[in-house]
Amino acid sequence: MPQAILFTDWDGTVTLQDSNDMLTDNLGMGHPARMFLNDKLIEGTLNFRDAFYDMLASVSDNGHSLDKCIGYLLEHVQLDPGFKETVVWCHENDIPVVVVSSGMDRVIRALLKNLIEDEKLQNSIQIYSNSVETDGDEWRIIYKDHSSFGHDKHQSIEHATAKAGDVPSGKRFYCGDGVSDVSAARSCDLLFAKSGKDLVNICRRDNINYIEFNSFQDILAQIKKVVST
């Protein structure tokens, strides 16, 4: 039986830059257009599934292949300085680390391989995400389910928890930063919301309990305290 289980968003949480925002801003519709859609997401007048699809489609429609996009991200995306240390500690203490992402599997795996060289550590991280379909240089995100988020993170968390076995009460952790993390935020015992990001504002608005963090070093310190009790 695991001591606990750590779920985390990927883009902007594990990584310092959100790869999807980076692609949209620099290779797709551009920052102003993305922020227009993002404001509607926060207001609740547009669902994440449709907005996110349009953002990513704009990158492909501008003629940028998936391979080119991945190459661009490998050059520009950095890992949170405390994530690798957190994964190592969790691995040593029988705590599964599960990435639950609205991003695309091929992109996440390429970045993970680039950012964490240790293959054993790479393989210890479970990934639940959307996929991607390519046709020549054209590509489109393929959503994991039919929810308004495209990937209902709550369902993935429940599946991963059942797979892990009997996780002690109060020891399911989730780390996130944005709108797509809302369903996950209500699914775990302790929520870590990244400072200065949309999830903090949503939690305040909807009275969701959370701990604010700046890096995974903050998260690891808190997890150690909880696990030791």
Automatic annotation (TrEMBL):
Pfam families: HAD (PF12710). The keyword Hydrolase applies. GO terms for molecular function: phosphatase activity. The keyword Cytoplasm does not apply. Keywords: Hydrolase. Gene3D superfamilies: 3.90.1470.20, HAD superfamily/HAD-like (3.40.50.1000). PANTHER family: PHOSPHORIC MONOESTER HYDROLASE (PTHR28181:SF2), UPF0655 PROTEIN YCR015C (PTHR28181). This is Pdp3-interacting factor 1. It comes from Pichia kudriavzevii (Yeast). The lineage of its organism: Eukaryota, Fungi, Dikarya, Ascomycota, Saccharomycotina.
